[in-house]
Amino acid sequence: MANKLQTIGFDADDTLWQNEAFFRITQDRFGQLLQDYSDRDHLMDRLLEAEKRNIGRYGFGIKGFMLSMIETAIEVTDSAVPASVISEILAAGQEMLEHPVHLLPHAEEAVTRLAESHQIVLITKGDLLDQERKLAQSGLGDLFHGVEIVSEKTPRIYEQAFARHGAGPETAMMIGNSMKSDVVPAIEAGAWGIYVPHGLTWELEHAEAPSTHPRFRELPDLGALPGLLDEIEG
After folding, report:
1. 98: closest CA among 141, 60, 61, 133?
2. d(CA 138, CA 147)
3. Phi-psi region for residue 120, left (φ > 0), alpha (ψ -120 to 50) or beta?
4. Contact residues for 217 (Cβ-Cβ < 8 A; gap 6+)
5. Is the pLDDT of residue 136 over 70?
6. Of all residues in the chain, what percent carry a pLDDT higher than 90?
7. Where are the alpha helices (DSSP H) in the chain?
8. What is the 3-state secondary structure (H, E, C) of 147-185?
9. Whole-angstrom distance, CA of residue 36 vs CA of residue 76
């Protein structure tokens, strides 16, 4: 029982359900709206720079993304962007906020199975209302013993979350698609960090994998998670 884990943390976006794909669709729409003012590569570089600047102001999520698109549109057009384009950007963001939740493969089975034997906690970044909406629509809400919607994921955040929902990070595991937010800071806090890659990952979530760390693992999908738990816990 020395290896028994008590708390399992799951990321939400692009770990349990699709998210980045909808951002990419909206980016394509944004590029089409501004094609008369900027080539796509330059426009996307400017948008990414705006997102970097605005994280501290607006946090993560669709609303901050909408504001960054509007700011970028104003910049690349030297403030000449038509009101109709701004209206289209707002409409695209609102469509994202209303988009149905699409669970990723094995998400429901993995969460359901682990909830029978461990404390299951959702630890996610983003807009509070939007994340609450997605969790409610996912059908997974009742399976979680706790939900933590945070502005950033740091070692301290994981220490606090795993203390609130268990015995601390030493007996906890974090699972997600972001090396930067889900894996590295969880391991730095003392927990296991499990990387489940997603085909699309936001540029700002990339980080070097802690490949040699004994508490790091990479899985092809959530279907391999129960087997990993059996291996770790013996």
Report:
1. 133
2. 14
3. beta
4. 192, 193, 194, 195, 228
5. yes
6. 79
7. 20-33, 40-58, 62-76, 83-97, 107-115, 128-138, 155-164, 184-189, 225-233
8. EEEECCCCHHHHHHHHHHCCCCHHHEEEEECCHHHHHHH
9. 10
Please, are residues 41 and 28 in contact by the beta-carbon 8 Å criterion? no
Predicted pLDDT of residue 86 = 96
Q: Which has the closest alpha carbon to 175: 22, 20, 7, 19?
A: 7
Backbone angles phi, psi at 121, to 5 degrees: -130, 135
CA dist list (Å): 117 to 77, 122, 193? 56, 16, 19
- The amino acid at residue 46 is R
d(CA 13, CA 127): 12
Q: Which of 51-55, 83-87, 121-125 comes out lowest in average pLDDT?
A: 51-55
Alpha-carbon dihedral sign for residues 132, 138, 143, 148: negative
Note the pTM of the prediction, 2 decimals: 0.85
**Amino acid, res. 58:** Y
Closest Cα partner for 139 from 170, 167, 111, 120? 111
174, 218, 171, 168: which is closest to 193 by C-alpha? 174
Token output for 124 = 């996610």
Q: How far is CA 225 from CA 5, 175, 179, 220, in A?
A: 13, 9, 17, 9
More confident residue, 127 or 185: 185
Q: What is the rounded average pLDDT of the residues 103-108?
A: 95
